[in-house]
Amino acid sequence: MKKSVLGLAAIGALIAAPAMAADLGMPLKAPPAPPPVVASWTGLYIGIEGGGGWGHESWMDNSTVGCPPCVGVTHNPDGGIFGGQIGVRYQFSNNIVIGVEGTAAWADLNDSVSTASAAFFPTETETLKVNSLYTATGQVGYAFNQALLYVKGGWAGANTNWMVNAPIALAPNTPFTASNSQSNSGWTAGVGLDYQLWNNFVAGIEYDHFDLAYSNFTAAVSNGGTPFIVTDTSRLTIDQVVGRLSYKFNFGGPIATRY
């Protein structure tokens, strides 16, 4: 009987020992650390962009009333840009990312230069404005987990407007205005850096160069006089730097984890 009681007491002590150890504050093994997050760049994304740009265009025109002799005019428009982007990307197992993207942006890049002639139009000015920019490009990049460094290139387009205004004229001339609008087409190339934030939001910054055709033109003047002739136009070049914020819709499920 005495041996049975001693045996039951020993079993009870073994059961109670872990609880006593916990009460005494003995160290316990920490749980394993969670696996690191591995971001996926595969998916459709849509977002907004905004920043600034600057450009260059030059030509010859008859602002001296007669061509030849023609006058060389150079415009360097600059200003703000705001628009949006939509695209899709696919990430390979080696972290190479490819994609296609389209953008459309409102632009307010403008420049006014004086082409005043003391003998005819002492306050004449010419203004060139870039009203909008569009792109359709391919991309290739490399993913550093939540960061993506990429290059892009493809088609680009713009809408531009030119206007001349001569509100004061010396007789026998009379004041006049004239204008011309164009759709310009060419190519673009750029580089960007995107970073996945939280809840599939992606922030980034991008630099792009545009090279667009700008056509010669003849514009009727409001006073019915000699038409305004613009010739020997250069390529219209534009550079922009924009910040971007996008939302990415995953194709392959949520952000993965690496074990």
Detailed description of the structure:
This protein is about 10% helix and about 60% strand. With about 260 residues, it is mainly β. The protein has a single domain, classed as Porin (Beta Barrel). The strands form 2 sheets. An 8-stranded antiparallel β-barrel has the order 2-4-5-6-7-8-9-12. Strands 1-13 form a two-stranded antiparallel sheet. The protein is elongated and about 100 Å long. The two termini are about 55 Å apart. Mean pLDDT is about 85; it is low at about 1-15 and about 255-259.
Q: Main sheet: which strands, in order across?
A: 2-4-5-6-7-8-9-12
Major beta-sheet overview: 8 strands, antiparallel, barrel
Shape: elongated
State the separation between the terminal residues, measured CA to CA.
56 Å
Rg of Cα set: 33 Å
The number of distinct β-strands equals 13
Helix amount: under 10%
State the gist of this model.
The protein has 259 residues and is mainly beta. The protein has one helix and 13 strands; from the N terminus they run αβββββββββββββ.
Write the layout of secondary structure elements.
Elements: H1 2-23, E1 37-38, E2 43-61, E3 71-75, E4 78-91, E5 96-114, E6 125-144, E7 147-166, E8 176-196, E9 201-212, E10 217-219, E11 228-231, E12 236-250, E13 256-257
Antiparallel strand pairs: 1-13, 2-3, 2-4, 2-11, 2-12, 4-5, 5-6, 6-7, 7-8, 8-9, 9-12, 10-11
Spell out the key features of this protein.
259 residues; mainly beta; Porin; eight-stranded antiparallel beta barrel; two-stranded antiparallel sheet; 13 strands; 60% strand; elongated; disordered N terminus; disordered C terminus
